[in-house]
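Following the same procedure, backbone shapes were mapped to integers, as reproduced here:
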Amino acid sequence: MDDIDRNLINTLQNGLPICESPYRQIAVALNITETELLVRLKNLLAEGVLTRFGPLYNAEQMGGALSLAAVKAPAERFEDLAQIINAFPEVAHNYARNHALNMWFVLATETPEQQQHVINAIEMQTGLTVYNLPKIKEYFVNLKLEA
């Protein structure tokens, strides 16, 4: 990742401008072309530097629910269990952790009631207990990469 990529990521974290050509406006600020910006963004996604690029919604303010959940996934079943859990459209992210609860994932549901239904379904399909860890307080961590 070069300085332009770092600056691109830092700039995009502040949101897209509301205008007719937001990518062009950002590209001008970074002294690159809109085409180069789009190619760089696609490459960052393809290389896994960025795992997602899109809007971030506050599920609770829209009537939904968001929660962190975890399971104790046996090492020999880890990949299969990850595929089962990731197949649920309500699973937004999935992380391996060096902990007794070694697979953590984010659940985002349209309603709070739906959250328990998804947890029950995951438990039935995996045979594992899902530990639901709803947030008590929200923190925003703003990652900035040094150029």
Observations:
- Residues 60-133 form a domain with the Alpha-Beta Plaits fold (CATH 3.30.70.3460).
